Amino acid sequence: MKFQKISVFLLIFISTVTLFSCGGSSKKQDQSVETTPKKEIAVNAESQALLDYLVELGDYVNSREFPSLIKASSVYEELDANNLIIDLRDKESFAEGHIKGAVNVDFSNIPDYMTNSIKPFEYDRIIMVCYSGQISSYTTALLRLMGYGNVYAMRWGMSAWNKEFAENGGWLAKVSGEYEDQLETTEHEKLSLSDFPKMNTGKTTGEEILNERIKALFAAGYRDALVFANEVFENPSNYYVINYDRRDKYEYGHIPGAIRYKPSGTLGIKEEMETIPVDKDVVVYCNTGHNSGFATAYLRLFGYKAHTLTYGNNAFMYDRMIKDRDSLSWLPFTEAEIHDYPYVSN
User: Fold this and answer.
1) Rg of the chain's alpha carbons, rounded to an integer?
2) Residues 128, 294: contact at Cβ < 8 Å?
3) CA 194 to each of CA 43, 98, 253: distance values in angstroms, whole numbers, following the listed order
4) Do the strands 281-285 and 83-87 form a parallel or antiparallel pair, or are they unpaired?
5) What is the rounded CA–CA span in Å between residue 201 and residue 188?
6) What distances in angstroms separate CA 137 from CA 57, 125, 204, 209, 304, one per listed residue?
7) CATH 3.40.250.10 residue ranges for the chain
8) CATH classification code of 180-205+219-328
9) Tens digits of per-residue pLDDT, 292-312?
10) Residue in 157, 172, 152 with CA at minimum distance from that of residue 93
11) Which residues of the chain fall below pLDDT 50?
12) Across-strand partners of 168?
């Protein structure tokens, strides 16, 4: 009996020692794990000044207003409201058909028009309209970054207004599943941190730098801000491709070599933007080209050689988007997006 008590005591003692020994070992092991801190990269003075100034203006790209899109149905319902519609298409396209009351302004003349031809804040909304929503998204982003908080881009462009525009060179002619068999699911890593591009405006304050960059971007036109699917798929390695969408959509299939950047977790965030190369053409793409148009404007403002992939996923994996539309919340352009709204010609 005595031997039994001693054995039980020893068993409890050994178990207790073992328990604390394992716990201590685990704790020691956890404490010994070291996380390598990210090497901080100093941002050049102009970029830092611009970053700080945009935050002062309200950090638009990380607000609920980004991206600033409006449906064609809302535009139609508010035709008699205190809104201004600016049509960015060429004169011929505008003359063939446009929304009643719209004014035709060339992209490069937008800053002058906003400053000298109208009083922007007298309108409830200023709505940018183009062929498909790509150019108007890019334009709206630049104007919003300038502080015009009442500017919106009409989603899908004139293709959503009337089938006439959707068929004649519009969205219905641009959707394609041509490159679906070239998509990959491999996850690619972002690059090491490096400085922002050197803008070399010669200015010192954030406001002055913003004005110089905006002036330069509008003067340059919008064509270099766009890229087409066939150009990218011909040689994806020529570009640093940014998938600007949810993780599940990225994992479903993306352009070869594409790296995922999180919407609302990239723009204006120094450590994220520092992984984007300054010496390579950057392609940003999303579902429709609208969100990527806004992101491209921001990146180009800082001097990145960024381009938005026109029509987004719709331009190269349309059939798969239709097939799995519900499960992944894809946004394929269909005839359901097209209205039969009247237009005027002159």
Assistant:
1) 26
2) no
3) 9, 46, 28
4) unpaired
5) 34
6) 20, 15, 29, 22, 18
7) 45-174, 180-205+219-328
8) 3.40.250.10
9) 999 999 999 999 999 999 999
10) 157
11) 1-36
12) none
